[in-house]
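Lab notes, practical 5.
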Amino acid sequence: MAIRLTRHNVRQEGASIVPKPIYIAALAIAGISAPVRGQLSAPPMVSALPNVNSMTVANSVGVLEYCVQHQLVSKVSAAVVLDRLGRHTNSIASSDYQAGLSGQVRSTGGSSPFLFERAATHQKSQVCDMVLDHAKKL
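Output from the prediction step:
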C-alpha cells in the first residue's frame, strides 16, 4: 500500500512540509502487516517432530515422566499409562528410559533423537501429546 503525499494530505509548518500524522500511521501499519501475514501463512513444521511410532516402550515411559515433570502433559492422563506400562517392563535400567528422562525421544531407524532442550515450547507440548497417544496403544 503506497500513499502519495500531495498538498491535500500535508500541512505547512514554517519553511518545511510535514505529512499529517494519520498518513504516517497508515504507512507504518502497512509496513508491519506484510511480515505478519507471511508468518501466519507458514506451514507447520511437522518434519521437525519425531516419529513416535517407532519408540521403544522404555523410551516412551522415560519421555512421559519427563513430560509430567515439566508440566507438558496432564499428570492424571500420564499416570494411567505409566502404571500400565510400568507393570509390563523393567525399563528403569535401560539407556532408552534414561534418555527419555533427560528429554530425548529416540526413534528406531537411525534418525537423530528429538531433544526437548532445543525445541520450542509448542513443539514440546505437541511431542508429549504424541508420545502419550502412542503409549496408550502399547
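Observations recorded by the TA: The chain has two domains: 10-40, 47-137. The longest strand covers residues 10-13.
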